[in-house]
Design brief:
Helix 1 packs across helix 5 and helix 4 packs across helix 6. This protein is about 35% helix and about 15% strand. It has a four-stranded parallel β-sheet with strand order 3-4-5-9, with helices on both faces. With about 325 residues, it is of the alpha/beta class. The protein has ten helices and eleven strands. InterPro entries: Epimerase_deHydtase (IPR001509), Lipid_A_modif_metabolic_enz (IPR050177), NAD(P)-bd_dom_sf (IPR036291). This is NAD-dependent epimerase/dehydratase family protein.
């Protein structure tokens, strides 16, 4: 396991251990590992592997699962050291697809973005796409089967993106909650538990190629109502609407996560075709179950990013909206 101590990677390791797999975690140590004493750990920078790490990478592996490669520089030092591996599973992102306003049902054959590491939004996806292409070229030479899993928007325990936590925390806090999204805005979420189970199954089933691992499509209204209802607090959603929110210079996604205006090309990423994955065995938990689990985790940590809309400004805007 390359990575494995944070969010999706952590869920994958948990699923592997649950099935009795012998797991080795190769990681940098920036996040404490919850698997210390349970699985073998190798502490190293993958861009400059230690002698121990190089020896471990050269061992025969049934599968290598890579959740931590963010750029080609993360792959170049590692791949030459791998010898005799059964298969390689690379965790990528649906963010590699080209956004076209009004386009629905992005399949694995949809056009990908033009490489642009300077773009403030798409730099990360550009690097992931470069990783995909590099892996295809290198592993094809050695006949190592490759599965590239392009993940949609993932939620669940251990989520360090803080996107869903914004809404979970407001639900747990209670009171008035500003909601700028159009009720019909598309949202597509997948539980990290479902991702982990599918990817672990994909190894046993020898899946290869590219697969979109995304959830079922729902609406902003359904998501917000599910979060607020599941929290069991006295919460009042204030649906101020996009026009009001934009007029008061609220920033979609970067200030209020999961909000995408009707004019945003990013909405294309909320309409990803997951039929290849579901045909291959992907099963999806009900949204309410995922939200309940996430609320339980949020209730324990009670933390969220300070970059989001702060409480004081939120309440001031609600007062203005009410007149």
């Amino acid at each position: 396991m390359l990575g494995g101590t944070r969010f999706v990677g952590r869920h994958i390791v948990e699923e592997c251990l649950r099935r009795g797999d012998d797991v080795t975690v190769l990681y940098r140590g920036r996040s404490p590992s919850p698997f210390a004493g349970i699985s073998r750990h190798v502490l190293t920078d993958r861009r400059a592997p230690t002698i121990e790490a190089a020896a471990v990478l050269a061992e025969p592996w049934d599968a290598v699962i890579d959740t931590s490669a963010r750029d080609v520089d993360d792959l170049r030092p590692v791949l030459p050291l791998l010898d005799g591996i059964g298969r390689y599973l690379f965790v990528s992102s649906c963010g590699v697809y080209r956004r076209t306003l009004g386009r629905h049902g992005l399949t694995e054959r949809a056009p990908t973005i033009a490489a642009d590491v300077s773009h403030p939004v798409r730099a990360s996806a550009t690097r992931k796409l470069r990783c995909e292409r590099y892996l295809r070229r290198r592993l094809n030479r050695t006949d190592v089967p490759l599965l590239t899993a392009r993940l949609g928007l993932v939620i669940g325990r251990y989520d360090d993106s803080e996107r869903l936590a914004y809404w979970l925390e407001r639900a747990l806090r209670g009171g008035d909650v500003l909601v700028p999204m159009d009720d019909r805005q598309a949202i597509q979420l997948i539980d990290a538990l479902d991702v982990a189970r599918f990817l672990r199954d994909a190894i046993d089933r020898r899946r290869t190629g590219v697969v979109n691992v995304a959830g079922a499509r729902t609406t902003a209204q359904t998501l917000v109502d599910t979060v607020l209802t599941s929290a069991g607090r006295a919460v009042a959603p204030c649906r101020v609407g996009e026009e009001f929110a934009l007029a008061h210079r609220l920033q979609p996604w970067t200030e209020i996560p999961l909000w995408l205006p009707a004019s945003s090309p990013e909405l294309a990423l909320m309409s990803v075709d997951n039929s290849r994955a579901t045909d291959a065995g992907l099963t999806l938990r009900p949204l309410a179950d995922s939200i309940t689990d996430a609320l339980g985790w949020q209730a324990l940590r009670r933390s969220w990013s300070q970059r989001w809309l702060d409480h004081a400004r939120e309440q001031d805007l609600i007062k203005r909206w009410r007149g």
